[in-house]
Amino acid sequence: MTTLLLASALLTGLLGLSAAAPAPPAPAPFHAFCKTQWFFVTPCTDISSTIVEQIQAFSPKPGCDVCRYKLVSVSPQSVTANHTSAVAAQSEDLLFAFSPLMSGGCRVAVRI
User: Fold this and answer.
1) Closest listed residue to residue 7, CA positions, set 38, 51, 37
2) In this structure, which topology does domain 2-19+33-111 adopt according to CATH?
3) Would you say 86 and 7 are in contact if contact means Cβ atoms under 8 Å apart?
4) Do 6 and 50 contact (CB within 8 A), yes or no?
5) Which pTM does this prediction carry?
6) Exposure class string for 11-39: b at 16+ Cβ within 10 A, else e
7) What is the pLDDT of residues 47-81, one digit of tens each?
8) Which residue would you say has higher pLDDT here, 60 or 106?
9) DSSP states of 1-23 as a string?
10) Which of 5, 13, 47, 63 is the most buried (most CB within 10 A)?
11) Distance between CA 85 and CA 42 in Å, rounded?
12) What was the pLDDT predicted at 13?
């Protein structure tokens, strides 16, 4: 349950970071991006599974405004997803890269 809460916080924090970035005047020749990393005491397999479950829970559904995530790929080293905004249908790719730590924990590098 704690891992699920952490994954939800990760996704919410990342979207909050990208949403807080000022929008360039239209048309923009580039798209803003964000990079961050977290360190967990939980093994990477648990973190990865929880992130995948959360993305699947937020897959597009009728009547769900926050359900705009699409799982693109999953491997032992990474999870790739896509998020489409409700406004202007802007698309963002998310990459979660997992690196096991010697302590048994996990480093998660995220790029939006």
Assistant:
1) 51
2) TATA-Binding Protein (3.30.310)
3) no
4) yes
5) 0.71
6) beebbeebeeeeeeeeeeeeeeebeeeee
7) 999 999 999 999 988 878 788 899 999 999 999 99
8) 106
9) -HHHHHHHHHHHHHHHHHHHSPP
10) 47
11) 31
12) 54
Q: Is residue 101 within 8 Å of 39, Cβ to Cβ?
A: yes
Q: Of residues 23 and 73, which shows the higher confidence score?
A: 73
CA distance 5 to 21: 24
Tell me the two tokens of residue 23.
């929008």
Task: Tell me the two tokens of residue 99.
Answer: 């690196």
Check pLDDT > 80 for residue 41. yes
- What pLDDT score does 44 carry? 97
